[in-house]
Amino acid sequence: MARTKYKFNNRASLNRLIDEYFERSKNDTDNTAEPITVTGLALYLGFTSKDAFDEYEQIGYHKVFIQRARFRVMAYYESRLHYPAPTGAMFALKSMGWADKFKASKVGGKAKLLTVKLIESGPRPASAEKEVVL
Fold first, then answer.
1. Which of 10, 60, 91, 97 could bridge to 56 as Cys pair (CB 3.0-4.6 Å)?
2. Phi-psi label, residue 94: left if phi above 0, alpha if psi -120 to 50, beta otherwise
């Protein structure tokens, strides 16, 4: 990895910048701050490309702090799933490796099946209007 000069020299300055990035959106009462994003975080930390950010996250000296920051971005998107229109958050999480596919859980190496038995109670519903008795 080529040596690039970022805004942080040590763990404390990196943590301070990460916290600043998240705090500026949290304290935004006028809704004028940019939303929390991985790209926004990378730019705030001084990275000039997604590849450089991803590479630093994988092998950089402070990779654990970058990984935790990315996880905070995911937590932000996950919280947005509870809003009325979560489509954008869903898209972002899927692009970060989340999936909406059903995965069967296994217990003792075997798939766990759920069986539902419907039990009728009360009178049988009418199949036509003329069967209704008032």
1. 60
2. alpha
